[in-house]
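Bump. Still looking for NTR domain-containing protein structure tokens.
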Amino acid sequence: MKKLRVVPEGVLVKDSKIVILDPTKEGVDGEQVEIINSGIAEKYLVPNAPTSTQISVTGREQVSALLENAVSGNSMGTLIKKPGGCGEQNMISMTLPLIAATYLDKTNQWEAVGFEKRNEALQHIKTGYNTQLTYRNTDGSFAIYPHYPSSSWLTAYVAKVFAMAHNLVAVQRTHICEAIKFLILKAQQPDGLFGEVGQVLMGQMMGGVRGSDSDASMTAFCLIAMQESRTLCAASIGSLPRSIDIAVAYLERRLPSLTNPYAVAMTSYAMANENKMNRGILYKFVSPELNHWPTPKGGIYTLEATAYALLALVKAEAFEDARPVVRWFNEQQKVGGGYGSTQATIMVYQAISEYWSSAKEPEYDLNVDISVQGKAKPEKYIFNRDNHYATRTSKIDEINQNVTVTARGSGEATVKMVSLYYALPKQKESDCQKFNLSVQLIPEKIDEDKKIYKLRIEVLYKDNERNATMSILDIGFLTGFTANTKDLDALSKGHGRTISRYEMNKVLSERGSLILYLDKVSHTRPEEIIFRVHQTMKVGVLQPAAVSVYEYYEHTHCVQFYHPERKGGQLLKLCRGDECTCAEENCSMQKKEKISNDQRTAKACESTQTSKIDFVYKMKLEVFEEELSTDIYTMRVLAVIKEGTSDVGPLNKLRTFLSYPHCRESLDLGVGKTYLIMGTSVDIHRDEEHQTSQYVLGERTWIEYWPTVAECQADEHRPTCLGMEDMVHDFGC
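Sorry for the wait, here they are.
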């Protein structure tokens, strides 16, 4: 017996809204009231698919979501241990649990996620450390792969992370200090500048270090690694103090002429570590709200720049300046606790942990009530100094409900509403700004018992200058289909390999899809990937499947859908104007065989759970219209033989019936002709725009030609006519 995992059609979407509670500043008479609603338009939702809303309230430290993810083994695949494969990627698997454990140790908050999780976190850190040593060269530097050229940036990053890990697990000092020694001997110029001596495969991992003023940000990055390793390596590296001094001098000279806020923020932190922060220059680039440092590229680069600025402020003990920055970070957090990239996340949490372990705590006593429509009593939460890091969560099994949040007292809290729903498949042009992606399903062997297709994927990186670095193809399968593993093995092995590796991943993908890792995606000619897919199980109605591509650190996926019979894998939808009805089923067919009167009456009287007839009409087709994906039949109800409760009083009124263009032939309806139509209330939908009911002509609909008065005189039609007229006058079940 095969188990089939059935998931709703469409794409699972997590939509979050964040509100900051601070009744002392934002409230009226000490009370702050906020009304939050998912606000998701019905037209984007897959009909009848499950939805839910999670409302979480966290005390002033909005960290527990990340911390729980970072130290729980089952979430390593979603937040921490993203697809691995090289020296840079491996650092991710130890970075997030490391920053989480460091934070929890500094602020004594292990109780928030469970004391037993500390050992799990330490195990992840040890694994990452030991694996990273396989990418270590004999001179102490680190490379993206064994025997590849060393990378200054990666070596500095490893030294920084190893120095943090040294306080938690057994890390040999030599592994840190020889990395620092390599930077001094091979990467630093006589004037103090640090440069890249090798290559970084995943440029995004470097964050804003590669942007304008990259000489300053690269120098600051290496200098920070040396500063954070200073206590461990000062005794073994005699030249360390001088190397730090000349790097500081270089940055002091460059600081007044820097124009990139990222470089300014990073340099400011490096200078603050030497008690030389220039607040005036740092605040030249701050936002008008004085709470973040916008960068030209925005997004994760702004987050990183702001994290470095916050570290600089904390180091300079400017806690009043730092407080609005921490609050701004609370508002930026992603679902699951991250900040969009590993670099952004590690820097933000390092900055926030430094702030909370150094800042003096103000008064904190906050009461929060959560009221939801339909619930008799509100959820009541109390936050104080003892539990200010805690998160309280409640759940609703639907979306678009008004949630009223009332806060009283002193202190801050963060309310996050996360709405989960299935959206109708659509290829958003805005999400495909970085890639061209095309997906084709090509029949190879199609017979009654076996279907084999070739899945052909072409992907091109839309950049004028560079290829995309490490990228991910997430390939969903049609229900009942599997990939040919021999084809995948051939793609991932040998000199001409197309992909670096593949795996079936049930964590990264909602539908348990195939994950392909690409070392690069060309910007000059499309990368082509072809493999066979086999149907292993027959399924009545196939839902579309999705293929998405994204760069390792970019969370915007370019998505395309595919299906054996429908262009772009469209869901079957019947639309009139902006109103659409989803109808994944087969066509109706006009009854042309000989139907006995008993058969017809028995059908009209059906009332079983699986087949129920709610309406029986005599109808005349008056108008036929074609729209993009929908045929619209406008009919007049000439007689009501059986009237349901979904459409009351339809006699002599016009009603619209919707069907697909590909069903036109099987329906074979003619304007001016009359038909007996029977169906179920499931196929009746309210048309709000026209204030009427519209019907779907689907596989549950009975359609039979009603002969004209003249035709009824002929012998072939007379029994049908008599039976139909009897139904009109004497129908009863």
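The CA atoms of residues 67 and 100 lie 5 Å apart.

Edit: fixed formatting.
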